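Long-time lurker, first post. I've been practising inverse folding by hand and with some scripts of my own, and I keep getting stuck on stretches where the structure tokens seem ambiguous. Below is the full token string for one chain I'm working on. Before anyone asks, I'm not after the true native sequence, just a reasonable design that respects the backbone. If someone could post their per-position residues I'd love to compare against what I wrote down in my notebook.
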């Protein structure tokens, strides 16, 4: 392990990983909290090593001197399951095994889980060491070991939960500044390092940093176009191409052409097939879009990002069905998506909207009851039903389904009914988990002719998209006097939302 200031997670990590190791070696890169003491009390050898800005160097320092026959590498924010501990111990008795992957489950918002297969267990061979200053990787040495010894790679099924990139925790650990600086340094040293280009673009996407995204995409484009052979050998070339295309100032036709020119020879990727479907949909080429969405679905058995091979292409197929007027087919596609991810907000809102289109408010009630019976209750379901009811103009139903569920749409429902103080309170309560909720507080202050102070953790694009959704719900469901008050006050925020008055 390598650690720094991990006293928050270490007790649970140590509890969950009990029985996993015979020797625990930890490199501490400068903790100022109780991290070293907690580890030493657990029997670890703690090695103090100054941070040099190189994760591989720290990893390799932890490997030096290890006495066991096998190495297992984990971080404090990776919580082992009992099944994983048992499987890792069992592999020690298999003389044919030389290395093993584990199932890392990255917990994403709204119940999504992105599964990744990571090479984290391998024989203790001095030739196996980590490479790359960030997102470090031991696979080169492991593959050489397997070739020389004739041993095999095993895939362990017991899951390990990863907490590190839950956004609030990442922000608290200031990972963005650290990771971006390391990746930029790697690219300065090797401008053709496509792995680092991908990781820098992922940082821009994760943090919603459009300026970083545009700059990183331009730099990555040059590397991709200069080294097509290297692109074909890159395991995540499809994801890299999509992120580059999304960062470049290209229209749908130009983006599609660029992707299609670069993608031949690359490994199949759900992200690339999905993006092609979306671009073809925007270009009005419905038949080809459907083929692309289906091709993305075909990768579900082999992709780590199941969302991109199930829910997203199914929603694309549902949109195409809606465009043809085939609402029953669209509803079936959405329901299939919800079978894969019952808490997905986009799929839930689509299902609610379709239910309202078919049967009005009673359709929403029926969908909510059926979904609860099939998948259980949840804040995401209430939020989607509340938003759908507001968009359908039924404020009473929105308050009914949102009762006891604090969030953005409860604040909108209160604002729509003229409860300005209640809307402000609900917005303030929800803004920590949902930054866009603060926009409802702003609107409540505008309607009440109050000064408002707003500090949004959103890009301008995200803020405008969220405000447009709120405005649409208010236009459909707010009392006339509320809409009139907001229209009168809209000029006060025309610098950020010049369209707001007309939208209301």
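-- Answer (accepted) --
I ran through it position by position. Result:
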């Amino acid at each position: 392990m390598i650690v720094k200031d991990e006293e928050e997670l270490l007790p649970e990590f140590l509890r969950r990983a009990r029985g996993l190791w015979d020797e625990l070696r930890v490199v501490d890169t400068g903790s100022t909290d109780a991290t070293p003491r907690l580890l030493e009390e657990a029997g670890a050898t703690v090695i103090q090593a100054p941070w040099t800005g190189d994760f591989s160097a720290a990893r390799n320092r932890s490997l030096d001197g290890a006495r066991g026959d096998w190495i297992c590498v984990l971080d404090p924010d990776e919580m082992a399951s009992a099944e994983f501990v048992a499987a890792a111990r069992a592999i020690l008795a298999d003389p044919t095994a030389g290395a093993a992957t584990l199932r890392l489950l990255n917990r994403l918002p709204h119940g999504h889980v992105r599964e990744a297969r990571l090479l984290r267990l391998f024989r203790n061979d001095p030739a196996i060491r980590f490479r790359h200053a960030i997102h470090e990787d031991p696979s080169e040495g492991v593959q050489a070991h397997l070739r020389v010894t004739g041993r095999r790679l095993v895939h362990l099924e017991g899951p390990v939960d990863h907490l590190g990139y839950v956004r609030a925790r990442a922000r608290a650990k200031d990972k963005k500044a650290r990771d971006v600086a390391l990746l930029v340094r790697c690219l300065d040293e090797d401008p053709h390092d496509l792995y680092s280009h991908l990781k820098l673009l992922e940082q821009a996407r994760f943090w919603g940093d459009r300026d970083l995204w545009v700059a990183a995409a331009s730099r990555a484009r040059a590397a991709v176009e200069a080294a097509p052979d290297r692109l074909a050998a890159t395991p995540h070339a499809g994801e890299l191409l999509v992120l580059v295309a999304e960062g470049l100032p290209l229209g749908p036709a130009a983006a599609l052409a660029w992707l299609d020119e670069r993608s031949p020879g690359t490994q199949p990727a759900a992200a690339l097939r999905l993006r092609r479907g979306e671009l073809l949909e925007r270009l009005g080429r419905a038949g080809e879009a459907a083929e692309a969405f289906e091709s993305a679905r075909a990768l579900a058995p082999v992709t780590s990002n199941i969302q991109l091979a199930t829910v997203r292409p199914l929603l694309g197929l549902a949109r195409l069905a809606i465009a043809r007027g085939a609402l029953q087919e669209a509803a079936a596609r959405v329901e299939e998506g919800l079978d894969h991810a019952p808490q997905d907000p986009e799929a839930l809102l689509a299902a609610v909207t379709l239910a309202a289109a078919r049967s009005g408010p009673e359709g929403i009630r029926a969908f909510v009851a059926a979904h609860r019976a099939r998948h259980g209750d949840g804040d995401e379901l209430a939020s989607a039903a509340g938003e759908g009811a507001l968009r359908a103009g039924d404020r009473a139903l929105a308050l009914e389904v949102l009762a006891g569920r604090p969030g953005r749409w409860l604040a909108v429902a209160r604002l729509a009914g003229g409860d300005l103080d209640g809307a402000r309170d609900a917005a303030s309560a929800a803004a920590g988990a949902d930054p866009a909720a603060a926009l409802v507080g702003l609107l409540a202050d505008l309607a009440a002719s109050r000064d408002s102070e707003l500090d949004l953790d959103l890009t301008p694009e995200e803020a405008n998209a969220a405000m447009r959704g709120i405005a649409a719900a208010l236009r459909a469901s707010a009392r006339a006097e509320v809409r009139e008050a907001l229209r009168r006050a809209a000029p006060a925020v025309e610098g950020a939302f010049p369209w707001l008055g007309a939208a209301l």
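A couple of notes from the structure itself: The two ends are 55 Å apart (CA to CA). The beta strands are 2-3, 25-28, 45-48, 70-72, 78-80, 97-107, 113-123, 152-162. Happy to go over any region you disagree with.
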